[in-house]
């Protein structure tokens, strides 16, 4: 069985840096775009950073941690209260799974960046109606359909709206960002690991 790569200081630093970058970008989106970072129609610009998972598996943990921190902060900034914990738990899960998909299919970037689109579109709309109702949204956006007893309709709306916003972010922002990053030393730095000397080698 193959040896696991140890969680070295270098890897922990990368995870922390990616988490800080994603968290900060998400908080900026929340401050300037409000509900577009977490509402029924989402355009979370920070999701473009999921392309970092094309270059390192450490992005999976980093993006998930950054998402958890940002969604926790949104409990205060967005006034979501305890309902915001749903976003902390399941929004973070969607980000982690999307980043894992991106890393797994990194050899095919156009396919790989579909991961965040798929998982966010399937997971986020499942709990979003509960959050929206708790915040005073009683109808499905752009319609007169009541949220009361219309979880199925809201879920389908959410799948379409989230997929659209996430798709625009990943393919119009994320892929160009990935192409630009490939022309820099960053991919090499993200892919490098600390060299741990063999036991007895102290040269």
UniProtKB/TrEMBL annotation:
Keyword terms, alphabetized: Membrane, Transmembrane, Transmembrane helix
Membrane-spanning intervals of the chain: 15-38, 50-77, 83-103, 110-130, 150-173
A Pfam family reported for this protein in Swiss-Prot or TrEMBL: QueT
Protein name (record): QueT transporter
Species for this entry: Leptogranulimonas caecicola
